[in-house]
Amino acid sequence: MSVGTKFTLEQRKTKNPWVESLAVIVAILASLGVCARLIMISGANVPDALNALYYGAFGSTDAILESLVQATPLMFTGLAVLIAFRAKIWNMGVEGQLWMAMVGATFANLYLSFVPQPLFSLVTILMAMAGGALWGVLAAYCRTRFNANIVIITIMLNYVVKYFVSFLLGGVWRE
Q1: For a designed S-S bond to 154, which of 11, 54, 92, 107 qualifies (C-beta 3.0 to 4.6 A apart)?
Q2: Hey, which residues does 2 pair with through a beta bridge?
């Protein structure tokens, strides 16, 4: 693939594990450097803040479990993006699909509590999947019916779902 007139992007034929490991280490150090700079700008003590960050995420078994609980939806969202990109589909609306999955799971928890306990988790997961899938289908419909740009549609639908959730939390699901 040619970019401009001077550069060419080419996929690497082989991957050196040392180079990949070094890239991960450099990325972690760079992110810590940016974090430290932002902490300094805010006027806080950098070592204390980074220490609190580390112990808040990895300081105990409960902290590790809570980190995993918070990271799991993001990991599944990243997996969804990976699958879409492998299919050569630019899906920038995964955040909106995650929000709609949360709406589906919340709906199941609020209105389907009569389901027997052994099936309740399965029903909640299925409702979450249905919410995210329906939101993706909306973008696909706009793409196929109106030949709209999928990137623009999915990004704009992210804002629509946030307003929808705000409506639900401010009204119907306020309690």
Answers
A1: 92
A2: 8
